[in-house]
Amino acid sequence: MHYGFRGVALEADSLTVEGLAFDRRDNGLSLCHRDTDSLMLGTAAISPTTYSFYRGKLLSLSFSAKGAANSHAVLARLQALYGPGEQKNSGQQRYTWRGTKALLRYDESSTNNNAVITLISLPLSSIRQQDSNGATLGTAANR
Q1: Domains, the chain, ranges and CATH?
Q2: Which of 15, 57, 104, 125 could form a disulfide with 97 if both were Cys (CB 3.0 to 4.6 A apart)?
Q3: Mean pLDDT per 10-residue run, the chain (143 residues)?
Q4: DSSP per position, 7-38
């Protein structure tokens, strides 16, 4: 599995990502986009990619595809690159690809066939979880 998307590696420092524009902060993350990103993935139209940074490092990136034609084209591309993926419930269009350092998810709505695709750094996600657990424990200890 590639450890990034469109030339941006997971865990990259936000200061090294060319063309990055800040959107907002949410839940301890800095959410950004790049105006230079293509809105096509193969033959599929996709939304602008959202880059989520934690502690200044790229934690995850995500984009969406609207409608069955675009969503299924993205899924076909992912399966061609990474294999069939793991599907826990065959009645749902949800697939996961797990590498040693990254997790890729494809989650398609059964009502409108829109899909959200997310690539996550497992090491940085683990650090964020540990930080969150430490903050929770610290808060509970102060009660």
Answers
A1: 7-141 (3.40.1000)
A2: 104
A3: 86 96 96 97 97 98 98 97 91 93 97 98 96 67 45
A4: TEETT-BGGGSTTEEEEEEETTEEEEEETTS-
Whether the predicted model's global pTM rises above the 0.85 cut: yes
Q: What is the pLDDT of residues 13-50, one digit of tens each?
A: 999 999 999 999 999 999 999 999 999 999 999 999 99
Distance between CA atoms of 24 and 32, rounded to whole angstroms? Answer: 7
CA–CA gap between residue 56 and residue 34 (Å, rounded):
16
CA distance 130 to 54: 13
